[in-house]
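Appendix C reproduces, verbatim, an entry submitted by the partner laboratory led by Prof. M.T., so that reviewers can inspect both the input and the predicted structure.
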Amino acid sequence: MTRRTPTTTHWVLAALVFVALAAWPITKFMFLFPQDQWQVDIQVYREAGISVLQGRPIYEQMTDPPQLLPFTYPPVAALLSVPLAFVPFAVAAWSWTILQLAADLAIAWVAWYHLRDRVGAWAPVLVAAVAGAFLWTQPVGDGIRFAQINAFLVLAILLDLKRPRTRLLRAVPPGVLVGLAMAIKLTPGVFVIHYLVCRRWREAATAVVTATLVSVGAWMILPPASFAFWGGALSDPTRLGPNDGSANQAFRALLLRRGLDGSELLLAWAPYLLVIGVVVFWLGRRAYQQGDWLMEAAVIGLAGFLLSPVSWVHHLHWLMVIVPAILGAAAWRDRPRVVAAVIPFAWFVCTMPFWGVLWKREGREPAVVGDVLVEGNVIGSLVILGLLAWAIHRTDAREPRSQSATPGRRGPATTGARGPRAGVGADRAEG
C-alpha cells in the first residue's frame, strides 16, 4: 500500500528540489540584475506606503529615476503597502520575494491536488518541483524580477473557488476573497461577471459588497487619494506605461503596434472583446457545470489577461493554474492532455517578445518574424484559450464514462440546467 503521510525525508528532499530549481531564477533576478531595474514594483508599493504616512499625493509621486513609475492601484493597496515603509528598501524587496515563493508553493499545493493526492507521501516533492519549475516561465519569473503582487491575488482567488472548502475556509463566505482581490486590483472583477453568468447571485453579491466596503473604508481614511484614483487615475491607461510597448501583451497593444488609434482602434478592439468575452465566460460556465472549480479558475483568470487594455506578462501568473487544469483528473491515463498541458508551459519558458525586439533591433530578415515574435504572448494567450476549450470539450466527451467511476473518487460532474449536480459526497471525497 502506498504511504500517504510524508516523512521528514520527503520534506527535506522537497526543500532541496525547490532550492535547486529556484537557484538560477533567484540568482538572476536578485543578484545579477542592474540596480536601476531591481525590484522596481516593490519600490512603487513602498513609495505609496510612505506617501500615506507623510500625507503626500499618492498618485502624483514617482519612483526614483530612471524608472519614474507612478502608483496605479486603488487606495486600498496603498494602505496595505504601509508596512513596507517601515523597513529599508532591500529588506522589503527580499521579504516580498520570500513571501512570493511561499505563495507559489501554496498555489502549486492547491492547484495540483489531482496529482498530489495520487503520489501520496511524495506530494511535497511534487509541489516543490512544480513551483520551482514555474519560476523558469516568464509570467512567474517576472513576478520575482519586478516584485509583483500577482502570486498573492491568484492564491486568494484560487482559495475562494476551491471546492470543497477546508475547515479554515469554511469560516469565510465564498466571494469574500475575490472581493478583497478586486479592491486591491480591478482585474479580478472578471470573476464577478463569471458568477453572474452562472447565476451565482450570492457569491457575486458577496464579492461586490466586500470590495465596496473595503474601498469605502479606504475612502474614509484617504479621501483625497480616493478622489484622485476613482476620478481620474483609473481611466488613464498611460499611467501603466507605454501602451504600445512590446511588454504590453494585450490584444489592444497589438493593434496599437499596428498603428491603429482613436476610432480605428476602438472599431478593431470592440469585436475582439465581444467575441473573446462570450467565449471565455461560456467556457467558464461550462467548467462550473462540470463541477471543475480548477478549470473555472483557469479560464476566468485567463479572461482578465485577454480582456484588459494593458496586460503585462506577469499578469499571466494564472499559468500555474492553467497547466494542471488542462491536465485534469485523468492526466496519468490521458496522454493527449499531458501533451496539451506541456504546450503553455514550454511556450512561456520562451521569451518571445524579447527575441522579437532583438530581431527587429538587429535588422534581421524576414522582418515579419520579428513582428510575430513581439506578439508571442498575445498569440500564446489565445493558444491557451484554445487548449482550455479543448480540455473542457474532452471532459464533456468522457462524461458518460465518469458517471460509473469508482465511488468516493470525484470525477467530472453530471450537469443540469442550473449548475453542477456533483453531490456533497463527491465534494467530501476530494478531501
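The radius of gyration is 22 Å. Additional entries are available on request from the coordinating office.
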